[in-house]
Amino acid sequence: MPTPIKRTSSLISYSKEHHFGLLLVWKIRQGIKREIITERIANYILYFFEADLKYHFKDEERYLFTLLPTNNNLRQIAEQEHSKIFNLITSIHLDKTNETLILEFAEILENHIHFEERVLFNELQLIISKKEIIEIEGRIARNSQAIDTNWEDMFWE
Length: 157
Description:
It is built from five helices and no strands. It is an all-alpha fold. The two termini are 27 Å apart.
């Protein structure tokens, strides 16, 4: 098992939110494995995206991606992946019965989170200034754990 990566304090809240993104991926896969009607899974994806993920992405784009030049390859990859995820959300909203879209969303989200945790955040930790750390730490992190308190259809259980 790989050694956990030590995070600078300013990135810890993002990593905690990533944990709940990976939990979303697990829930999706549990739903598929349990042969849950895809519309139920799609409804949860759309709910979680609106309640959490879209704000997480906007925070990353505002506070983290801007630390890198616009032509930076890692920034471009992260921005392109966010765009793909937003497009998949639109597609899922239009077709909640498409299992392929739901599985693609889960795979892209999981790969994106791993990219940020293993590559992008490591790069950011090398260049982030004390002033930028303070600014990032001033962001209001969401309580991603509380998202499910307003959701009744626990199809993954």
